[in-house]
Design goal:
Number of helices: 21
Shape: elongated
Oligomer: single chain
Radius of gyration: 38 Å
Strand content: 15-25%
Distance between the termini: 108 Å
Number of strands: 21
């Protein structure tokens, strides 16, 4: 396109009726209302902003006077509904007051930082030039009296809800700045309640190195420092201060001190709070140049560690305009990486140097750690060395389970390693008995996430070339009957016996094993759950959203049903199977099947109870020499 050609619609007509240029009109009242409703979440942040401005004035004076200390004073006047914030910093000239106090978005601190060549700029907090105007959240009128260190003149700056600003000469004995808020009636408490201001100071300026005094009190309100900010922090002191600040006893303290690529100083800790589920985002207290930005900032701590809390000083990070969050830029991402590395490396060291302490943390946050490990491979590998599964051989780590699960030659489908697991809590004792003389353990994945965790740990090894297989402990799994049970001739029961003994919830098998055991039953809790959901679905009582969760859980896979194995080497069972199911021996076998299923944790339904009653009566009648069946004598 020809750059000289006019853009349609941006040129005046050939014979305009009139034209003129006008300046932007700023509705100060509207801007103040916008700041209150959109920029700041709470009115007390106005006090925070004024403390920050006072801090920057003192820091600018410190940069020029090495021995100068400085202080900030807050004063309340309940009679006149006044709140004052005063400092003995560098102050302002009349020209600076006119330029910076009356221009939204232009502040002295921000201008100095942008220039980048002034001593002490790195210690300044302010940047955006909206701090003073935030005072209108609380006040209907603001009066500022300031005197610059190198000027004999003092200046008065006054503004209210209108568009005009009053600038006038004033009297002030020494350099510094005083901001006086004429409070709105709704916020008179800020001039009346001393404890309210103390709370605000401690919430935002607890760690600010400058002393802050209230109503000419003899003791500073803010602490001014913290053990975790020291060059060589004392571990016990850090732990005690974390406990005091957060109101809970840390289970483990993780000191953080990073200088490159971004400065991070502070301390993290493992909370004793057992957060339910795996989705609660970990939160953090963040300070920038010692001023608290947020006590619940999200996004910096690793998602896999929702049990981590703490406080960090991030002098190089950029606050948002509201100073209630951080800008999500490259420095923010660097801090994320460094905190993730700090937490994980600390846990790695614990595994090696103090395994008992690490086991204590696992015991306390077992669900959270295991749940997070499902999606975080490094943590999963760490837990593989330290997380203890319940097994038929006691509590074992995945590494220990793996070493004991080498495949048996001639069995196990030639896999190098076979991991057997039992997901049914009702069969834990039963499985322990079956695996008593077996060299490999049976892992009891009694918590829903443990089955997935075990499979993922095995998959991590498989990805490295290990020939490993994970199988459920049951006769339907390859080689379980031969390898674990020592069972031979396993096969399907004749159809008539399947119809007589089984159902759509029970699969009947026959085999040969220890003659003393007539029946073995293996319950599938997943199948029972699936069947229950299917019945609810048919009744139309499952909400659509819940049904989607059910479908996602089973992923279209119909679980294997409960399994029963009849022992051909048991005298009673063997003789019964030589006859038809309708004999008294058949009813005895059906009672034995019901008992075995009940022992495994199966809950009989109404038809099952009715069959049991019929079988008992039929056996009794046979013993009495009578046939109570329809058509019998």
């Amino acid at each position: 396109m020809d750059s000289e050609q006019p853009i349609p619609g941006e040129q005046p007509t050939e014979s305009p009726a009139w034209s003129k240029r006008v300046p932007f009109q700023v509705d100060v009242g509207g801007i103040i209302q916008l700041m209150g409703e959109s920029l700041y979440s709470r009115p007390e942040v106005a006090v925070r902003e004024l403390i920050q401005n006072a801090h920057d004035g003192i820091m600018r004076r410190r940069a020029e006077e090495v021995t100068f200390q400085g202080r900030i004073d807050l004063r309340q006047d309940p009679e006149r509904h006044l709140l004052e914030v005063s400092d003995d910093g560098i102050g302002m000239t009349p020209e600076e007051a006119e330029t910076y106090l009356g221009t939204l978005g232009l502040g002295i601190s921000g201008w100095i930082k942008g220039r980048g060549d002034t001593a002490g700029a790195s210690n300044l907090i302010g940047q955006f030039g909206v701090g003073l105007l935030s005072g209108f959240l609380l006040a209907e009128r603001i009066v500022v009296v300031s005197r610059h260190r190198d000027d004999d003149r003092a200046v008065l700056w006054e503004a209210g809800s209108g568009t005009d600003i009053l600038l006038a000469s004033a009297e002030r004995e020494s350099c510094g700045t005083t901001v006086r808020l004429h409070l709105k009636p709704d916020f008179a408490a800020f001039a009346e309640q001393e404890e309210l201001l103390e709370s605000v100071i401690r919430q935002y300026a607890e760690f600010l190195p400058l002393p802050i005094y209230l109503n000419e009190g003899g003791q500073r309100v803010n602490v001014g420092t913290a053990a975790w900010l020291e060059t060589t922090p004392d571990r016990r002191a850090v732990e005690m201060e974390l406990e005091s600040y957060f109101g809970e006893t840390p289970l483990e303290v993780i000191p953080v001190r990073v200088e490159r690529p971004v400065t991070v100083r502070g301390a993290l800790y493992v909370t004793p709070q057992r957060t339910p589920g795996f989705t609660d985002a970990p939160t953090l207290t963040v300070t920038v140049r010692r001023m608290v930005i947020s006590r619940r900032l999200q996004g910096l701590l690793p998602d896999w560690a929702p049990f981590i809390r703490g406080v960090v000083e991030l002098p190089e990070c950029d606050p948002t305009v509201s100073r209630e969050d951080l800008v999500r830029n490259v420095r923010f991402a660097w801090v994320q990486e460094e905190l993730d590395r700090a937490v994980f490396s600390h846990f790695e060291k614990l595994v090696e140097s103090d395994p008992k302490r690490w086991e204590t943390l696992i015991a306390w946050h077992r669900y959270l750690l295991a749940g997070a490990a499902l999606a975080h491979e490094p943590l999963r590998r760490l837990l593989g060395r330290s997380y203890r599964f319940s097994t038929s051989q006691g509590l074992l780590t995945f590494e220990q389970i793996f070493k004991r699960s080498r495949g048996r030659p001639g069995f196990d489908s030639d896999a190098d390693y076979v991991l057997w697991y039992n997901p049914n809590r009702h069969q834990e004792s039963w499985m322990n008995t079956l695996f008593l003389d077996y060299p490999a353990p049976c892992v009891h994945t009694l918590r829903s996430f443990e089955e997935t965790l075990l499979a993922l740990m095995a998959a991590d090894l498989a990805a490295e070339g290990c020939d490993i297989d994970v199988r459920i402990a049951g006769p339907g799994s390859p080689d379980f009957a031969r390898s674990v049970l020592g069972m031979g001739d396993l096969g399907e029961a004749p159809p008539v016996w399947q119809d007589f003994l089984g159902s759509d919830r029970v699969r009947v098998l026959v085999g040969r094993f220890a003659p003393r055991i007539p029946v073995m039953a293996f319950l599938s809790e997943r199948a029972e759950l699936y069947k229950t959901f299917e019945e609810l679905k048919k009744s139309g009582s499952v909400p659509a959203g819940f049904q989607r969760l059910i479908d996602a859980h089973f992923s279209g896979d119909v679980p294997r049903p409960n399994e029963v194995v009849l022992n051909l080497d048991h005298r009673l069972v063997g003789r019964a199977l030589e006859q038809s199911p309708g004999t008294p021996l058949g009813s005895v076998v059906r009672l034995l099947v019901g008992k075995a299923l009940a022992t495994a944790g199966w809950v009989p339904d109404r038809p099952a109870f009715q069959r049991e009653e019929d079988d008992l009566m039929w056996i009794a009648e046979a013993l009495w020499g009578r046939d109570s069946r329809p058509g019998g004598d």
